[in-house]
Design a protein that fits this description.
This protein has 141 residues and is an alpha+beta fold. It has four helices and four strands. A four-stranded antiparallel β-sheet has the order 1-2-3-4, with helices on one face.
């Protein structure tokens, strides 16, 4: 069987704020600028999930696309769509991890990787805030 990769991309709107409560307001403004302003700001995020594996000779697919779509719906859209990431996702609460593109890509990677069939690998999760800024997670440290 031939190896291949497949990417499914979904979009969702969410808010976030870069703010460290252990820092003064002045230091937050100095480091993050307007990204530290309350209550935060929104993006129409795009999340691309790339899987890899052998193409099944009978179906012509790496995995059932309906299953992949369900995993992405449950692990990306339900927890993130329409949310304030700092307030609604404990990992990104104030005083924890800042909700950067890099951190969001790793968060999604951790959620999706264990849900894939054994013969399918998660090659990449890409989180884009806009057409000019995105981060890829290709493995977890």
């Amino acid at each position: 069987m031939q190896g291949a990769s497949l990417t499914r991309t979904v979009s969702f709107h969410a808010l976030h704020r870069y703010y460290r409560p252990e820092w003064s307001e002045a230091k937050n403004q100095e480091v993050f600028g307007s990204l530290a302003d309350a209550p935060g700001h929104g993006h129409e995020y795009r999340c691309g999930v790339t899987i890899g594996g052998s193409v099944d000779g009978d179906t012509g697919m790496i995995m059932d696309l309906g299953v992949l779509d369900r995993i992405i719906h449950e692990e990306v859209l339900i927890p993130l769509r329409g949310k304030h990431i700092n307030l609604d996702i404990p990992e990104f609460g104030y005083g924890h991890t800042l909700p950067t593109c890099e951190a969001l890509a790793a968060y999604v990677y951790r959620r999706i990787a264990p849900r894939l069939p054994a013969a399918v690998s998660l090659e990449r999760v890409r989180i884009a805030e806009d057409p000019t800024l995105y981060a890829d997670c290709t493995r977890l440290a």
